[in-house]
Amino acid sequence: MPDGQTAVARVQEAFPQTVMQVGSMHGVPMLRLHKQDVPAVARYIHTDPQVLGSLSLLWAVDHRPREARYELCYLFTLAERKDWLLLSSDLAGGEREFASITPVVHAAKWYEREIRDLFGLIPVGHPDMRRLVRHEHWPKGSHPLKKDFVWDQVLERVQGEYAYRKMHGDGVFEIPVGPIHAGVIESGHFRLSVAGEPILQLEVRHFWKHRGVEKLFEQQRLTEAVPLAERVSGDTSVGHSVAYCQAVETLLGMTVPPRARYLRSLFLELERLHNHIGDVGAICNDTAYALAHAHCGRLKEQLMQLNDRLTGSRFLRGVNRVGGVVLDLSGPQLSQVDAELHAIEREFVEIETILFANASLTERLENTGVLSEHTAWDHAVMGVVGRASGVDRDLRRDRPFAAYHECQPKVAVYRYGDVRARMRVRLDEVHDSIRLIHTLRRQLPTGPVVALSVDPPTPGQWAISAVEGWRGEILYVVMAGEEGRIHRCKVRDPSFVHWPAIQWAAVGNIVPDFPLINKSFNLSYAGNDL
Amino acid sequence: MFRIIKKSLSTGVVTGHYPAVKSPSEPVSREAIEKAKPFRRSLTIREVDTGSCNACEMEMNALTNSIYDVERFGVHIAASPRHTDALVVTGPVTVNMERALKDVYKQTADPKIVIALGDCAINCGVFKGSYAVTGPVERHIPVDVRIAGCPPRPAEILAVLDMLRGARTEADK
């Protein structure tokens, strides 16, 4: 299996007639192609058994006012060594159309619809041209990420209706759910087509919570946008802020001091812990097993109170800054973390034993909401959901960041892809997180926690950053603009990839299991809608 | 079975095990207390998310865990606006959620109170000005109580609910 560079050579070999420029950006091999050649090359990278690239990110940039062109970038993660390979192509001048790669790379589906909505560029050949982000009441021609779109304008409201995918047949009816749900959860719409109890089709329609995050980033300075990154998805405040900070640090050529890297890893693991424990409880709650929910809720609350004592924020907000971390943890604080985690792990083991002794719980979880390995691959699924479906990917091991070079996680992989597997991944990761935190604390180097600031980068430079948050891979692409401002910031929460996949996991299950399946994915609506 | 009982016994009662908080920065207005009076010792809440980052939802959920246990004060979380006395709204109101919020408000039976939870619901927070945000909650529906914070801690939310409740018991005397 090839690394990035050999993959580039293989692509060149396979397409001798195609004109391409080979380059690299911060160590990521990059191929610049003519836009009409992209689908063929993307297909080759995605399907060739020697390369097997899975689409990790697809984003567009409006280069105005410096240059009158749009750029489309396709980031692939190669199967074996998890190297990255980047394709890019230009739409110069007044061009508005580009060839869709969705027919050959399924994972591009939502990305291309998103680009159509936000940039007004048309993916020709895309099988689904309905609007995604801009709901039907948005006026025609309002494409927020175009540089001539004023960020704080007031949009007028027009008439329009979304065309849901219809299912016909005897006894088939639709159950609309949302945007406002019965529980205390975020807003989103699910349309279930059912015949009796079994779900025949699930359609997810989101973006109710679209707040214009990417445009808001463009109004900020590189070094000052951390609070916004923390509020992309509140439950992943650390994941998003670390990902953002790393991208900016690469741009500014900063070296983060070792102690700050360790503390970042520690905060990431604390965030993973309270979310995973909460999720285990919530999954049990959706099978009406209130006892486990109560115990897990209690442990989660203990962890959040610990976060509050350590940093003054239950969500660990305000700990990261560009160049390092804002606050250092003292010796007594770290001992407190150690002691508390020992107690929590002891309790968690007891709760696990209680869980798996309960057949009525485990039977609800087994074979429910199966996301097959094949579907997972097609959707380029990763993170907790991916690892439960046999996708052996974890950025902490594959592209180590923060302190994970020196402190490697054990990656939990299960193959069944059902609710139980997703719960098992979380259970294993809880134990591993606690182990990692103990190790991080033991190895914690001394020294400063913040790097000195450097001059702003040249406009047009950009950097990609990837962080394994507790849900999965969080990707940020940050491009520098004039005078230290942000020209473009692409944010990709793992939820954006997993929402289309959940549509397939629900098919064939009964309606009462849908909340359970949804909970086992536990995706962010805010991080998806942006 | 014995394992479960043993675990429950060794855990004991955890309700109320949280650090005390300072009283809320913005006191609950007399009008709001007056308005909350009909709900006496039972207040049913419907939570509506109009574009939050989901941290406020997590804190609302935390209210129902065994440590805060909001139900001991007669506060319930309902699944439908039709069963509700109070709407708790989180997040700035996005362009896409504006209509849903107004619909929910209409569906909620009178008398009702509206609680804006978190900085975004009060003043749009970091999302202020965006093309996709139409403004704070009070631009669309009348707001009676504001709970500031990003996000407010569960104990802080509880303190405000307490004030609404406390006023009622005083009036009962």
Brief synopsis:
Chain A has 530 residues and is α+β, with helices and mostly antiparallel strands. Chain A contains 17 helices and 15 strands. The longest helix of chain A has 29 residues, at 258-286.
Report on this structure:
The complex is a heterodimer of chains A (530) and B (173). By secondary structure, chain A is α+β, with helices and mostly antiparallel strands. Chain A has two domains: 121 residues, Beta Polymerase, domain 2 (2-Layer Sandwich); 317 residues, Cytochrome-c3 Hydrogenase, chain B (Orthogonal Bundle). Chain A is built from 17 helices and 15 strands. In chain A, strand 9 and strand 10 form a beta hairpin. In chain A, helix 7 runs antiparallel to helix 16. Chain A starts with a helix and ends with a helix. Chain B is of the alpha/beta class and 173 residues long. Chain B has a single domain, classed as 3-Layer(aba) Sandwich (Rossmann fold), CATH 3.40.50. Chain B has six helices and seven strands, in the order ααβαβββαβαββα. In chain B, the strands form two sheets. Chain B has a five-stranded parallel beta sheet with strand order 2-1-3-5-7, sandwiched between helices. A two-stranded antiparallel ribbon of chain B has the order 4-6. In chain B, helix 2 packs across helix 6 and helix 3 crosses helix 6. The interface between A and B is large, with 57 and 54 residues.
